[in-house]
Amino acid sequence: MQITPLGDNALLAETGAAADEATLALTLSVARALAAAMLPGVTDIVPAFASVTVHYEPAKIPPGPGAPVARVAEWLRVTAAGAKPDAKISGREVEVPVCYGGEQGPDLPEVARRARLTEAEVVAQHSGARYQVAAVGFSPGFPYLLGLPARLAMPRRANPRVRVPAGSVAIGGAQTGVYPLATPGGWQLVGQTPLRLFRPEEKLPALLFPGDFVRFKPITPAQFAQESARVTAHPFDRQNNRTVAGKTGGIEVVRSGGLTMLQDLGRPGWQRVGVTPGGAMDRQAARVGNILLGNDENAPVLESALTGPELLFHADTWIAVTGAEVRGVAGWRPLRVAAGTQLSFAELACGSHVYVAVAGGFAVPRVLGGAGTLLSAGLGGFWGRALRAGDRLTAGPVTDSMPGTADRGGWGAAQEFWTASGNTRAAGGGAEIAVRFVRGRRWAAFDETARAAFKSAAWRVRPQSDRMGLRLLGPPLTAELPGEMISEGVSFGTVQVPPSGQPIVLMADRQTLGGYPKIGHVIAADLPRLAQARPGDTVRFAEIPVAEAQAAGLAAEQTLELLRLGVAVRRRG
User: Fold this and answer.
1) Are 246 and 383 in the same domain?
2) Is residue 461 part of a domain?
3) What is the residue range of 262's domain?
């Protein structure tokens, strides 16, 4: 079993070279063995097709010889060695009703034409097979199913749909799957189920897990309508009802700014069912803001992209502004705000993501262990959506023991924490961001010219960048691959190279699985500065070994610990 680092906080164990039932059986056995012998510090175990990805926090791995990556790899190797495929261990069998064709399956005629079958024959073959869930990813609860009859294998659409309805049953290549949420997609739609595959309000949020078996049961349009009426609605569908949103909170949104939402440090533990950990783009800035106010580091904060909000404070409180520098507002220190104060965080002097922490943290419910907003699934934060003018937020209780203010020449976090201003300013006004990376799993698949270009080029940040990925523009990188890659785990900072040859650095809201070759991974210690990149900024990559990357991450954690201790002394004094 080949074990490969996915950056400095994940490992990938390759269980085979093909996406078949035998390999999947071994993959699931390894995942079960790892879960049963869970190592402290491991946050996610993600089986997918022919690999198992182990995500971990290096600072929380038990002490021992060598770097954390070596200790996790040894645990993985020893534990996986005892895992054998067991025919007695099988998933549940779930029956999924499907209304084929018509409005629910608009591509059924095309699938029938390509397969040289009648539509009825396509339905009979598709519903007559027994499928197994090989992975869950792409979006929360999306099952990739093995077992599609060979004659029904279909190429993906040349022009993906902007919106695929939730519940759509589709064919892509040699697989079939079901879209749990309304998302863009390029698979061929043959039908639709009334079942909800992603249910974040429940203890087990997905209907299907890796290893489960699925049988599709054809139903009529009338039955589809009847079943759809009985299905419990997504509890966060109320997010657009303004009367539900709180109107009595002490912090009112006057102007929302650019994509302002509540974020924390993420919701690990659910990547095996396609739920990205998410969380703040600049985790260091979010943590420092909470530390300065004496909050739990994981308390929700406001995050805005490119333009900050304008807020009206209806009660006395303390805030801390971190991340991007805001003109007219002191950053990286506790600030006393009196009732009736209206503050604008709209103009960012440098950086792209600004954070506003409030004493006591913002009071919002946790969903699947996290309070952050996951827009793609409409959950977390403030009714699962970005903030709008008129929304009012509630914060925790305020004490009079908060230390210092800017007006009295108070104190704050040292400049070494200032993620945005730490980036070099270029002559044209943009930032030049130097980040370190470790080699990706497909590094050798790129020729010497491509590898040299990756390390030497000044990569321009494209306007299409978002919380899912930082899209870069530069010399095209090409990879020599033996065939279509099998989707496998990715992590925050993974650098994937799609067919265009232009790299994408996966960021906070990345998908949980990826099928593009990985040329490298930005190290965790440098992600906060990369998160502050703006369109037009340039990025340069420098290679370092995994052990050095983890040493840099541990040093950053130690620096944050010193800040925590310093704030605690101030509060006691």
Assistant:
1) yes
2) yes
3) 238-417
Q: Are 346 and 308 in contact (CB under 8 A)?
A: yes
Verify that 165 and 21 share a domain, yes or no: no
Distances (CA, A) of 202 to 68, 199, 369, 511: 34, 6, 12, 22
**Same domain, residue pair 142 and 261:** no
Helix (H) or strand (E) holding 226: helix 221-230
Q: How confident is the model at residue 83 (pLDDT cuts 50, 70, 90)?
A: confident
Structure tokens, 375: 């827009």
CATH code of residue 430:
2.40.100.10
Strand order in the sheet with 317-326: 261-263, 301-305, 348-358, 317-326, 334-337
Domain final residue, candidates 210, 233, 256: 233
**Interval 409-448: pLDDT, tens:** 468 888 888 888 766 665 556 899 999 999 999 999 999 9
Residue 253 and residue 371 share a domain: yes
| pLDDT of 91 | 80
Tell me, yes or no, whether 401 and 282 share the same domain: yes
Residues 6+ apart with CB under 8 A from 554: 58, 59
Question: Distance between CA atoms of 177 and 193, rounded to whole angstroms?
Answer: 11
Contacts of 562 (CB under 8 A, 6+ apart): none
Residue 65 has which token pair?
């010889």
Backbone CA torsion sign across 321, 325, 329, 332: positive
Are the beta carbons of 162 and 183 closer than 8 angstroms?
no
Please report, as a single letter, which amino acid is at residue 407: D
* pTM greater than 0.85: yes
